[in-house]
Fold this sequence. Notes:
Blueprint: H1 8-11, E1 18-19, H2 24-29, H3 88-91, E2 94-102, E3 107-114, E4 120-125, E5 131-138, H4 147-154, H5 167-174, E6 179-180, E7 183-184, E8 188-195, H6 198-213, H7 221-227, E9 230-232, E10 241-243, H8 245-253, H9 257-269, H10 291-301, E11 307-313, H11 317-328, H12 336-339, E12 352-359, E13 370-377, H13 385-399, H14 405-412, E14 418-425, E15 432-440, H15 445-462, H16 466-482, H17 490-502, H18 515-528, H19 530-543, E16 548-556, H20 559-577, H21 580-598, H22 603-608, E17 627-631, E18 634-640, E19 646-654, H23 666-675, H24 683-693, E20 696-704, E21 713-723, H25 727-740, H26 746-766, H27 768-780, H28 782-789, H29 793-824, E22 830-836, H30 838-854, E23 875-878, E24 885-891, H31 902-922, E25 927-933, E26 938-944, H32 950-957, H33 959-965, H34 970-984, H35 990-1002, H36 1007-1018, H37 1022-1038, E27 1040-1045, H38 1047-1056, E28 1062-1065
Parallel strand pairs: 4-11, 12-16, 18-22, 23-27, 23-28
Antiparallel strand pairs: 1-7, 2-3, 3-4, 5-8, 5-11, 6-8, 7-8, 9-10, 13-15, 13-16, 14-15, 17-18, 19-21, 19-22, 20-21, 24-26, 24-27, 25-26
Helix pairs in contact: 4-10, 5-31, 5-34, 13-18, 14-15, 15-19, 16-24, 18-19, 21-31, 23-26, 25-30, 26-27, 26-29, 27-28, 31-34, 31-36, 33-37
Bound molecules: zinc ion.
The site of zinc ion has 7 residues, from helix 4 and helix 8.
Amino acid sequence: MERAVLLRSISGTTSRVCTRLFSSKVCNFTAKRHRSVLNTRRRSLLLQHLRLISTSPSSVHLNRPFCPLAPRAIATSAPQFSPDVSDAPEKLGFEKVSEEFIEECKSKAVLYKHKKTGAEVMSVSNDDENKVFGVVFRTPPKDSTGIPHILEHSVLCGSRKYPLKEPFVELLKGSLNTFLNAFTYPDRTCYPVASTNAKDFYNLVDVYLDAVFFPKCVEDFQTFQQEGWHYELNDPSEDITYKGVVFNEMKGVYSQPDNILGRSSQQAVFPDNTYGVDSGGDPLVIPKLTFDEFKEFHRKFYHPSNARIWFYGDDDPIERLRILSEYLDMFDASSAASESIIKPQKLFTKPVRIIEKYPAAEGGELKKKHMVCLNWLISDKPLDLETELALGFLDHLLLGTPASPLRKILLESSLGEAIVGGGVEDELLQPQFSIGLKGVSEEDIQKVEDLVMDTLKSLAETGFDTEAVEASMNTIEFSLRENNTGSFPRGLALMLRSMGKWIYDMDPFEPLKYQKPLMALKARIAEEGSKAVFAPLIEKFILNNPHRVTIEMQPDPEKASRDEADEKEILDKLKASMTEADLAELTRATQELRLKQETPDTPEALKSVPSLSLEDIPKKPIEIPIEIGDINGVKVLRHDLFTNDVLYSEVVFDMSSLKQELLPLVPLFCQSLMEMGTKDMDFVQLNQLIGRKTGGISVYPFTSSVRGKVDPCSHIIVRGKAMSGRTEDMFNLINRIIQDVQFTDQKRFKQFVSQSKARMENRLRGGGHGIASARMGAKLNVAGWISEQMGGVSYLEFLQSLEEKIDNNWDEISSSLEEIRKCLFSKEGCLINLTADGENLTKSEKYVAGFLDSLPKSSLATSESWNARLPLTSEAIVIPTQVNYVGKAANLYETGYEFKGSAYVISKHISNTWLWDRVRVSGGAYGGFCNFDTHSGIFSFLSYRDPNLLKTLDVYDGTGDFLRELEMDNDALTKAIIGTIGDVDSYQLPDAKGYSSLTRYLLGIKEEERQKRREEILSTRLSDFKEFAEVIDAVKDKGVVVAVASPDDVENANKERPDFFEIKKAL
Ligand SMILES: [Zn+2]
């Protein structure tokens, strides 16, 4: 049921994007391509308030919004639209190009052209309160200096009307935004914002418009240095280093094998056009960029004549044009649009083969560490919508679920550990297809290539199973209807889809209208059979297509140190060539930059950013309807919400009776349930059945501390969704999954283990902050320990040892899996959570009752108590990387601190000011933030892609003093409060609301408490910050440190502070 992929052809989202900021909002949405659709949001609710970090900011992040298009689930009835007859647009300087009512999203869409400059505006009106604005420029780079990416960062660092260091951060602090970010694509740069509050929305729009058209960075060399690159020299006796936010961000990206592969593939497939270079920036090339080139790029491309602007939602369409005209009228037409045209790549006449190296761990096991990926450029020109749709469908058939033949055969071949390559990628001018494996032995590379080609050949000859085609069709239709974009605003998902054509001067309406081509495709499949539809596509675009690039990636244990030595050599040479006066000047400039970075904005400058007042904020928390009842003795929570006829359900089982040593097996147990098959159905049939009857089922563990309790809350959750008419089928399927699945397939289980291992290794390199955080949690409390057993370094170690055990001792593993099932799945300790409208909730009752009757009455197990923790030592997890992830944490409840709502405001403020300024801006890390898990009491600091190690810890330790010395006027305080409320009230679609209500129930959070916390947030005073300073000193004094870091940095740290880190090698 992995259909995050969905209709890529009409979803048109982003791959290889650099997101500027990484809200948890983006994160949640980052459904990995081959991951279950149903979001496995784990652990604390606070995570949602946290600005976390996207796991791979330079490659596929915003993978495929899940069907952004269908009838909106929030609206019960469509508003009536009359054609626009007013002459207001004309008077404001716009001419209407075309207008359509888009049935698929129940919206009126009007395309305007700004007469003076040629700027194009798409104005979409409907009753969605989550309003979206975006301005997009075509920004094709000519080299890999990363100009578009550095500009994306820099324009948000102050502008004409908002002359402060980072208006962007002020908006993060003090607005109710439901989305705020910026993305760099290989050929365009997007600036989207969203809010449900109209006043807030227009504030955001104005700040963004001013930022892109009148940024300070084009006159301010220091912003360029800070965000792009600069030489740093703190003292003439020290070495010169490179610093810069983008520079370090990209160093992190270039440390990850999957990213290196993705980039090499793109560049090799498009050697002759703009996609042949890296818009994000290659750390080797970034220092070649000059300030003049940077300014010129902005002048040329950030111009209305090269802009596409999107508005969406329930606000006044004329007001939108009025705001725009103020900005656009200030410009004259330019030739930017013709200069930014993306030239297509011509097709090759014969295939190409490329070998690349990637940094691997020294002394690690290198034999099975090769990667191979086959890539095709599908066409030399854009495809028509029907062909794209068919290709998207084909992609889902080939790779969309574990049962999809190409994916299945590759994984079952035992030639490699995990799939690489994203299948069909269609968000650039020309679509591509790529597929391969990682964790391959050098001698097996040819076998992987042959297997890919042979499988595609045989699929072209024999076609797909009818069941598979039906399952894919249902999956696609379901998700279109459900239109579940997660926490990503629907209007933004639509914008990105429309932009996929519009940016290339094609029809922006077309990608929004999927119904007709989908019906046509369905009819063709019914009439001619699926083979007649798909076989020619496989033959033409893949098998007989000479534009094929095979990339082989070889592990190179010396690469990381070689790269570092090369960089040092350049910098040493530079230093040797400098006179004493030069060095003194560089030291001065370094200090000047730091001083500027560390000097706060003046209160006047801060006041320039518009903000709401506390009166604009609702006094009550958002209420989610809940009715707690009982079916056959089992608790049932019901949430009466309009869901467009979809029933969302969670079946929750208690995990607390599981034996401690079985915990690390739980993730594999969950995967086995979904992917091993029952007595009478193999897993392919089971998956097809799930695809045909439901919108997806997933199983995963949920663990959290509960405030005021010793024992953690730990459950297994089975999540499912289906059209209400399919409720019975869904519960039958859930029943079969948890009761009938056979844990007998040793070979498949071995694949799960190697896939999980590959995934964990990837996480270590790309998401080391998460690994560090889990590790600290495991040292500080039981819930953290459990999570780490199932997803941290301990889990990786478990997987490594398990791999051998499968061959020698499979029976024991198999019976352990059976034991887990017997412990978990029973009526006793079960809880059901349902979200749908009242009528469908009532209708579902008898199926729920039937399901519950079929469960065993009580489980085998007796209550277990887990009290394991990892030792409280400071640890460095050493991996081959050029950047670090540094964490420090302590449990504040153990100091006697009692939780107050103000802690939300304070920790957000620490993240957005102190840590942002010191860890990111002057430290040069891509991110630095803190998190307060209010359930466990653990307060943690974390950094992301950080060039520093001990220095970052010093910043963390300075937090108490920062709070003690903090000065804050009322405006700043109000902003901090409003920003916090924005997080607490984050926008949720109905399924997410039902799920939040469930987790609150599980964690014992009552409505009265939510009201109390809200009041505490709203009444936060400066004195709360000062009091918190004393509390947070506990992290400095007693905190535990975990860093995921490079061997050199750890060695140096241990030289500076002997025996500070206990070293653990993880890769
Ligand atoms: Zn970036």
